Amino acid sequence: MSIELRIPALLKIGGGSVGEAGKVLAELRCKRPLIVTDPFLHKQGVAERLKKLVSEAGIPAEIFHSTVADPTSDVVDAGVRVFRAGGHDSLVSLGGGSPIDTAKAMGMLVANGGRVRDYKVPRPIPMAGPPHVAIPTTAGTGSEVTRFTVVTDSESGEKMLIAGGVLVPSAALVDYELTLSMPARLTADTGTDSLTHAIESYVSRKANAFTDGLALTAMRVIWEVLPVCVHEPGNRRAREAMMLAATQAGMAFSNASVALVHGMSRPLGAHFHVAHGLSNAMLLPAVTAFSARAAMERYADCARAMGIATREDGDERAVGLLIEALYRRNAELEVPTPKQFGIGEAEYFDKIPLMAEQALASGSPQNNPRMPTAQEIEAIYRACWAPAVRPTVADGT
Ligand SMILES: [Fe+2]
């Protein structure tokens, strides 16, 4: 069977690449773009500078700056109204995963009509939206290169996964200089999201030779440089390496899918307002322990690529070292357990059956090397609450 790959038609990577936004828009024949960003970047003047830059290239742009963390269908609808009222023909998203995901969903509704929930996985998206240039300011969700968007239904509160090749942005400007001012917490969380993308795409049932190379390179780099980015925010070499690796991890998971960590992470984030990278981090070690037996060689490859194990270590030992290292890294990056995060115990345990059901319905757990039942997902949520005993490879049997 052939491998299907979807990546942006144009990628500009490197410090200062955001300066080429006007040129890229002209190449895409965009005449009236709408810049989609969040209130913070708007207040900081970053969106305004982009607007000026694009305008100087002879392309008048406007700004929609009402995106929210964890995009909602209401905000997407509001963005679509602004897009239509302003006679826009293209989208430029500027920010972390939330503005980029918002722009993807806006483009989808502009082209196809209806409501966001009409396109929830596994529903198809028939038509491609207008040209979309994505400019990430975190490293990162990888959303600038992926075929996914995650939008919370404003009515039901469900964090919906929407997937389709037409969601891949037309172009991405990957400029690490935009990440230099990211605070430590955001750096750690978005970076852990990238690490999870790399590991999950490598162990995914949909992994392929193309995504394997990207995933292994990305996890090697992220494991090494993420702590440097957190502790030395101005380290340009580390920021540059992290930004490229986050985009590579994005390309890997967009074409190989994520798996159980992401499937379980979305409901946890939606019900308890945990940042996406943080909820991934809370789950990653325990899910790795649960899954390891079904893909021992693949997880051992990860451990070796990340420099946690050597060729002399057998697979089982390598995977044991990987799980320990993931717990240690969480401690180093001050990742709380759900309990330490401040979630109420009764509320957490009450929600577990619903979260397990929503995790399975998203389709991501079906890509996991070990396919879980609802009961097994519930057990992992319970184990993550405040682990007295950390699960190991042996517990995953
Ligand atoms: Fe993610």
Keywords, separated by commas or semicolons:
binds fe (ii) ion, 6-stranded parallel beta sheet, 52% helix, 397 residues, two-stranded antiparallel sheet
Give the helix/strand layout:
Layout (H helix, E strand, L loop, with lengths): L9 E4 L7 H7 L5 E4 L2 H5 L2 H11 L5 E3 L8 H13 L4 E6 L1 H16 L19 E5 L11 E5 L6 E5 L7 E4 L9 H20 L5 H23 L4 H21 L3 H13 L3 H16 L4 H10 L9 H18 L5 H4 L3 H17 L12 H11 L13
Parallel strand pairs: 1-8, 2-3, 2-4, 4-5, 5-8
Antiparallel strand pairs: 6-7
Helix pairs in contact: 1-3, 4-5, 6-7, 6-8, 6-10, 7-8, 9-10, 9-14, 10-12, 10-15, 11-12, 14-15
Bound molecules: fe (ii) ion.
The site of fe (ii) ion has 5 residues, from helix 6.
- Share in helix: 40-55%
Rg is 20 Å
Q: Quote the average pLDDT.
A: 95
Largest sheet: 6 strands, parallel
Named once each, the bound ligands are: fe (ii) ion
| Extended strand count | 8
Number of helical stretches of at least 4 residues? 15
Based on CA inertia axes, which overall geometry fits?
globular
SSE class:
alpha/beta
**Unreliable runs, pLDDT <50, ≥5 residues?**
none
Relative strand content: 5-15%
Termini separation? 31 Å
Strand neighbour order, sheet with most strands: 1-8-5-4-2-3
SSE string, helix = H, strand = E?
EHEHHEHEHEEEEHHHHHHHHHH
